[in-house]
């Protein structure tokens, strides 16, 4: 499993951003190997983390080829003050107590 952590400092979101963001999420959900996402908001700032879960690196690469995703990446300065992407291969997960909230999200 692979995690893509998208850390962002939001800027100004307009209607075009929201439309493109919805299209990108739909493309992710339609990509074979997409497992879900989780979002966290920092309590002390507007910074957010969005973690996307992928079955394989090939699935992630397939999503990365999406035209809307590429277009958004080229226009990030219009909507974000800053961003950082970290791609991580998960070796193992374990725990107890999260029940239906366990990762990856379903």
Automatic annotation (TrEMBL):
Matching Gene3D superfamilies: 3.30.70.100
Protein name (database record): ABM domain-containing protein
UniProt source species: Halogeometricum pallidum JCM 14848
């Amino acid at each position: 499993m692979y995690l893509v952590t998208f850390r962002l400092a939001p800027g100004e979101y307009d209607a075009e951003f929201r439309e493109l963001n919805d299209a990108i999420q739909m493309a992710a959900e339609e990509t074979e190997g997409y497992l879900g996402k989780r979002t966290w908001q920092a309590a002390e700032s507007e910074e957010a983390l969005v973690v996307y879960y992928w079955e394989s690196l090939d699935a992630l690469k397939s999503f990365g080829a999406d035209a809307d995703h590429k277009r958004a990446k080229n226009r990030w300065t219009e909507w974000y003050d800053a961003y950082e992407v970290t791609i991580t291969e998960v070796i193992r997960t374990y725990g107890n107590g999260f029940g239906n909230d366990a990762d990856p999200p379903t």
